[in-house]
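Below sits our specimen:

——
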Amino acid sequence: MSGTQRIDKWLWFARFLKSRSLATVLAASGKLRLNGQLVAKAHAQVKAGDVLTFPLGPHIRVIKVLAPGTRRGPAPEAQTLYEDLSPPPPRAARPAAPAGGEPPQRASGSGRPTKRERRALDQLMGEDGED
């Protein structure tokens, strides 16, 4: 191998997308950047040292290519192809606790609350129970 590889093939080998056709669609969508330049075609070549920026789910991924792939192997093998430069995703915000502090906790394994317990819990949480 000459040290370069098609961008759609590399994204598939590195296991960022489930199929090569999805990688081709991402490359053609105009949302993929290679070293800061927009990529319009799936045949763009990547090599070691290139930086890819693309949306994946709700996050923007920034990936540094370390090596071209030779096959779509298991995930640990795929992770050797790149270095993740993305900032860690923000931690999910916990729901606000009621004014009284921590929300009430049920003992593990105690099952579902009874109707009476549910009404008491709703009253404690300030819900009127009417929809």
The chain has a mean pLDDT of 85. The first strand starts at residue 4 and ends at 6. Residues 4-84 form a domain with the Structural Genomics Hypothetical 15.5 Kd Protein In mrcA-pckA Intergenic Region; Chain A fold (CATH 3.10.290.10). Residues 51 and 64 are 4 Å apart (CA to CA).
